[in-house]
Amino acid sequence: MARRLSVTQRIALINKWRNPPGPSERLRLERAERMVKEAVNAHGPFQGLDITVAAKGSYPNKTNVRGDSDVDIMVKLNDPFHTDGMAEWWFGQPAGYRGPWTKAKLREEVHAALTDYFGWVGADHNLAFYVPEVAGSRPSIDVVPCFKWVKYDFAAPGGEYVGSVVYGRNGKKVINWPELQLTNGRTKNTNTNLRYKFVVRVLKNVENDLAAEGVIKALPSYFSECLIYNVPDHVLLAGDFDDAVRASLQEVYRQITSFFGPQRMWEPNGMKKVFGEGQKWSEKDARELIEGAWHYLGYED
Fold first, then answer.
1. Which of 93, 154, 182, 207 has the fewest CB atoms nearer than 10 Å to its CB?
2. pLDDT digit string (tens) for 125-184?
3. What whole-number distance in Å separates Cα of residue 6 and Cα of residue 238?
4. Among 123, 107, 109, 126, which residue's Cα sits nearest to residue 169?
5. Residue 189 lies in a domain
6. Whether residue 113 is found in the same domain as residue 150
7. Same domain, 33 and 166
8. Which pTM does this prediction carry?
């Protein structure tokens, strides 16, 4: 069991954690994104292609904390885009695609572009290439080669949702929706007077502390964001900042322990369920995190 903070200690940490990332963190993100863009722009085989290079994850969402060391950057090829179902036959890259930009080709060329620019780059991870940190020069960067992914839906603006798909070395694909995550997160943060991302940062910091003490296993930082996204706005707005944290933990615990509650929880992108096949966490992980956070922060039972 983790140590239990006093009220004074808790309030001091909450006041510390409530602040968004400072200028140094913003510069860290901008430097990583700029350097990967330069690597892609300098790579001959990418000339004339429609490619998006952009940050994803906690840094652009301003929910990063001290434990989030790597900056995530996607290199997304927009043409050919990928989709599935009947839409794949009509619009996307078909199974019989014979053009040059296959999954293997994109991964190969992104690796080559990064190596030419940065030198040695780690290529053993399932999804991303790892660019090591150089102190005073660049942060560590996870670079994900991916294709534009389109989901057609008559209810969507313009009739489609746009995301990205990355094909792992293990043969499996992972579909992400970074733009939707960013948009929805900003909207919720505005609607809650910035408390949404504040509570996310608190839970992320607590998770890091609990994992460091061996109370729980280390979890992806995005998991905390997913859990707090499901807290209704009025709960986040009630009382002072300490009240918002307390009430949010209670609300998440209510949802994850209620009948069918976990099945009604959505990621910030609004496209994927928080719990289910392919996720890197479980309902048990959520219960242990929230119970551990409640004890660690010294809230009364």
1. 154
2. 999 999 998 887 788 999 999 999 999 888 888 889 999 999 999 999 999 999 999 999
3. 22
4. 126
5. no
6. yes
7. yes
8. 0.89
Question: Within a 13 Å sphere around the CA of 22, how many CA atoms are in the beta-carbon half?
Answer: 4
Residue-wise pLDDT tens digits, 226-262: 999 999 999 999 999 999 999 999 999 999 999 999 9
Evaluate whether 184 touches 266 at the Cβ level (below 8 Å). no
The secondary structure element, H or E, covering residue 207 is helix 195-212
Crossing angle of the two packed helices 283-296 and 241-257, in degrees rounded to 10:
150
Concatenate the DSSP letters of all residues of 38-52 into one string: HHHHT-GGGTT--EE
Cα 115 versus chain centre, distance? 25
Q: What's the total number of domains in the chain?
A: 2
Amino acid of residue 158: G
Q: Which has the closest alpha carbon to 237: 251, 216, 256?
A: 251
217 lies in some domain = yes
Contact assessment for residue 285 and residue 227, using Cβ atoms and an 8 Å cutoff: no
Closest CA to 206 of 274, 275, 298: 298
What's the burial of 19, exposed, middle or buried (CB within 10 Å: 0-12/13-18/19+)?
exposed
**Among 187, 291, 284, 277, residue whose Cα is nearest residue 229:** 187
